[in-house]
What we know:
The structure holds 2 protein chains of 2 kinds. Chain A is mainly alpha-helical. Chain A is 67% helix and 4% strand.
Amino acid sequence: MVAEPALTADFAIILLSATFVGFLAKKTGQPTIIAYILAGVVLGPAALGIVQVSELTELLSELGLAFLLFLLGIKMRLDEVQHVLKPIVKISIPQMAAVFIAGAGLSLALGFDPLEAFLIGLAVMYSSTAVVIKMLTDKDEATSLHGKIDVGVLLVQDIVVVIILAVLAAGRPDDLAEVATTLAIVLVLVALITVAAILASRTLLPIVFRRIADNKEVFFLVAVSWAFLFVFVSDNVNLFLAPLGIEAYLSIEMGAFMAGLAIAQLPYSKELQDRVNPLTDLFVMVFFVSVALDLEAAQLLAHWQEAIVAALVLMPVKFLVFFYLIDWQGFDHETTFLGSINMIQVSEFGIIVAAVAFEGGFIEPEVLGFMTLLAIFTMGVSVYFIEFNHALFERFEPTINRWTGDGEFEGGKREYRDHAVVIGYDEVTKNALPLLADRYEDVVVVDRTVSHIEALEEEGYDAIYGDFRNSTIRKDVAVKKADFVLSSSVQPEVNKALLREVSEDATVFVEANRIEHARDLYDAGAHCVVMTPYLAADRLSEYLRAYLEDDVDVLEAAIDGDIELLATPELFPDVNGRLGGGGDE
Amino acid sequence: MSELLTAVSILFIVTGPLLVVANRFDLPTVPVFVVAGVVGGSVIDPDILLELAYYGIALLVFTFGTRIDLAAIRSVLLDGELAAIGQILVVGSLGVGIGVALGISPTEAIYVGIAAALSSTIVGTALLQTEINQGLVRGRLASSIQFVQDLIAILAILLLGAGTLESGYVATAIAGGLALLLAAVLVNRYLFDAIGRFAGSSDELMILAVVSLLAVFVGAAEFAGISIVVGAFAAGLAVRHDPVEYLGLFNGLQSIRDFFVAIFFVTIGALVVFPFIGDIGWAESVDKLVLVAGLVVLTAVVKPAVTTAILIYRGYEARSATLASLSIDQISEFALIIAIQAFLLEALSSAVFDAIILAAAVTMVTSSLSQRYDEEIYRALANRGVVSGRHDRVDEWSDVPDDIADHVVIVGYGRQGQKVVETFEELNQPYVVIENDPARREIVNRECDAVVVGDAMESYTWEKANAVDARLVVSTVDSRPVSRRILSLGLDADVTLRAGDRKTALELVDEGALYVGHPDLLAGQQLAQQIRDLFDGDLTREELRENQRAELERRADHVPLHLR
Lengths: 585, 564
C-alpha cells in the first residue's frame, strides 16, 4: 500500500538484539562489547543468518570506528600527552617486533606455511583500538597515565597498520625497493596530515569555533563536518595523488583521529566530547555486531583448535612483552600492570589485515576465519581482564612488586576536591566569585559563552566551556567533591540534577523563577534559592512606598546607591567594599 | 570505504562552511542544509542517501514527540487560541487555489496548500526563544499556533500516507494511528521507567533502548501500512518524560537527531532540480519559479496578514498580533516531510516538489529577517494605518474611573506588577494597570480596581489610562521598546522602569527615568551578602535554609495562583 522506500529491517534487528543482549550483559555484569560481538555471531551466517551486511550497516560500522578515533582525538590535549611520547615510541616498536616473532613462530609450529605464518605474525602485532579505547572510555580511564600509554601505543600501531595495509593493497610487491617507497609515502602523508591538523588548531579553528560555539547545533555539526573532511581526504588520498603517479592509502581512522586532535587543543573540546559520545556509542555498537556478520561457519571454524591454542599462547606473551617494556620505561607498578593487562587482545585490524591479504591472494579464506576467531576470542577474554584490572592488580600486587623496578615516572592530572563550583556566569553570580575565591583554593566556573570564559580565565578563575547537563562536564568540575555549589540556572531540571549529585556536606545555592520550583528545590536539599523576580518586586515596592510617603531622603539615597552600583564598570566589582546592608529583607 | 560514506562525507564537508557563514548572520540552519544539498547534489547521488534521510525524518518527528507537553494542548484549547488556527484554512485554501490556477493537478495543489499553511517550529520557535522565555504574549501566541500546526501536520501525514485521500486507506490509517498512540501511552506509563531502572546509570544502554523503541514503532507503522512518521511521533510520545532523571538520554538523543536531521535536509536539497541549471528547459524553469514566487508571497505576506487579522479580531492588540504573525511566516519542516513522502510515492511531480522545497528555504531565510526587523515592520504598517487595533475591544475590556487623577500607572501585571499593586492598595493610592495579554484579562479585572487591557506601545492605551494626569508611571516590563515609548510620551509624571541589563538601565536613567530596576543586580547583592554571612559564621547553612524557606512561604501566601 505504501510505496515509500522501506527502512531495511536489518538495522532494526541489529538494534533490537543489541539492546536485548546489552541489557542482559548489564544484568549479569558482563561487558557490553562481548554481548554485541556475540549478537553478531548469532545473527550472522555462522548461526541464524537473518541479517546481512547492508550498505547502511557497513556505513555505520565504518563511522563507528571513525567516530571512536575522532572522540579519542578530542580528548588528547597535546600538553597533557607530551610527557609520555618518548616512552610510548620506545615501548611500541620493540613490542610489535617481539609479538610478530612470537606470532609467526607460533603459526609455523601450528602448521601454517611460511607466508601464512609471516602474515599472521603481522596481523597479531596490534592490540584492539576499539576494545581498549571503548573500555577505557567507559571506565573513565582514557586520560589516566596507563590510559595515555595504551592509547599512544595503539596509535603507533595504527600507523604501522596503515603502512602494512598500504603495502598489501598494492598487491604482491616486486622487490624491496617498492615496499620501501610505499613506506616512505605513507610516512610522509601521516606527517603531512599531522602538520595540517596542528596548523589548523593554531590558526583556523580557534577563529571559526569561537564564532559558532554559542550555537549548540551549529557547533556540533561543524565539528562533525571537520571530522568528515579529514576522513574524506585520508580515504581518497589515493585519488588526489593519482595524477602524480603515486599510489598510497591512509586509514579513515587516522584521519578522524587527527581531526579530533586539532579540536582538542581548543577550549571547547569538553563540550564536544559529550555531543559526539552518544553517536559514537550507537555506531560502535553496529561495528562490534558486524565484526562477525561476514563469516560462514565453515570458514570461521576451520582452524578453531589452532585459534584457541594461539589465543592461549599469545595473550600471556603480549602481557609479558608489554609488562617488561613499560616497566623498563620506569613507570610505577600499577601503571605497568594496568597498561599491560589492557593490551593482551588481537585487534580488529588483524582481521582487516587478513581480509586484505585474502583479497590480494596471499592467504586462503580459512586463514581469514582463523584470524577472525582469534581476534574475537582474545577480545572477548581481554574485556574481562580490563573490566577487572584494578581488582587483579590488588590481588597480585605483592608478586608484581617483586618483579618490577622502582617507578620514577611522574604524571597524571590534578583533581578538584573541596572546591567551589559556579554554574553560569552572569550579573548575579559574578558578585559571589570574589568571595568564593577568597575562601576556596579552586573556584571552577562552567559557562556556555565564549567571551565569559575568556574574561574569567583572564581573572585567574578555572573556567570550563560547556553545558552542565553533560556528564563529562559534571565529572570534570567534580561536582561530587565540591564543598560549595552556586547555580545561576533557573531551569529546575538542571538544579535538581545538580542537587542529586552533590555531596551532603556541600552548600548549595540555586536560582528559581517560580515559587513551586523553589519549594521543590528546598525539598531536594538546596540551602538557598535565589528568586530574582521576587527580590526585585520587593525592592521596587519598598521604593514606591517611600516615594508615595514622600520619604525623599531615604528614597534618593537608595536610588543613588543602586545607580552607582549600576554604573560600576568593572567585570568583578569589589563587593566587599560597597555593601553595607545589602539584603533588604 | 563505501560509496555511502563518501556521499555522507561530502555532504557534511559542504554543509560545515555554509553553517559557519550562516551563523555569522544569525540565519536558521534548515535553509543552510537545503542549500548545501543543492550544491552537493551535483556531486552526490541523493538516492543512496534516502534511507539515512528517512532516519532523519523519524528522529525529527520523534524528538518533537518527546517534547510535547500535554498540559500545553489543554491550555491552547482553553485559551481559545485555536481560533487563530483559522488562518490554516484560509491560507491553505488560497494555496490550493493558486496551485490550481497555475495549472497543476488538484491533488498536487493540496500539497501546495499544506505547504503554505503550516509554519516551522524549528525556525519559528528558535527565533522566538527569548520572547517565549520572557512569557510575552506574542511568544506564547506564536508557539501555540505552531504547536497546533505541528499536530495538524502529523495528522496530514497520517491521512496522506497513500498519496491520495482514498476512503479505504483513511480508515486503516486512522485505526493504525490510534493503535500506535495507545501503545505509546501504555509504553510511557508502564514500560519506560522499567527500562530506565534496567539501564541503571548507563546512558549508552538507555539511548540504545530508546532508539530500539523508535525502530519498533517505526516498524509497526510500516507493518500497518501507515507512514513511518506517525510511528516516530508515537515513539516520541512513548518516551516523553521529565528530563531530570534522564539528562544523559535526552542530551544523547539530541546529538543523534542533529546528525541525521542534517542528512535529511541536505538530501532534500540534493533532490531539487534548480531552475535554469542542469538539464531543465527554459519554460519549465519559469513555471517552477512562478510557483515558488506564488508560495513565497502566500507564506511570507498573505499568511501573516491573515493571521494578524484573525488575532486582532480575537481581541489581541495590533502589535502583539502583528509580531506573533511575523514569526510564523515560513514553510514548515513538516511540510517538507509531507512533500518528500508524496514525491517518493509519485503523488507529487518533481516540479511541484522542487517549488515547495525552494520556497521553504527562501521563506525560512526571509522569516528570520522579518523577525529581526519585526518592530520596524509593525511601526511602518501602523504609521500607514494598515494595521490598527480595535479600540472598542480596549474599551470593552478596560475599566477605568472617568475622574481618575494623580494616580499611578502600572505597566504589566506579572510578579512585580502584582506586588506593586498590593503596595498601592495598602497605601490607598489610586492606580491603573496596563496589561496587554488577553489571557490575563480576567485575573487583572478581578484583582485590580482599574485596568486597561491594551498595549503600552499604543497611544490609545495611555489615553485610556489618563496618563496625562498621573503622578507616577511604574513599568515592570523588561522591554526596551516599551521603556523608550514611555519616556517618549512626554508625561509630567515620574517614571520608573525595568531593564534586563546594566547598559540599558544606565541609558534609561540618562534619558530621564527616575529609577530603573535591574533585578539581577539586586539578586547579586543579596547573594553576596548571604554568602558572606555564611563564611563569617553569622549564619549556619541550616539557619539560612530555614530563613529562606519561611520567606518563600510568606511570599507564596501573597502570590496569585497563576504566577506561582
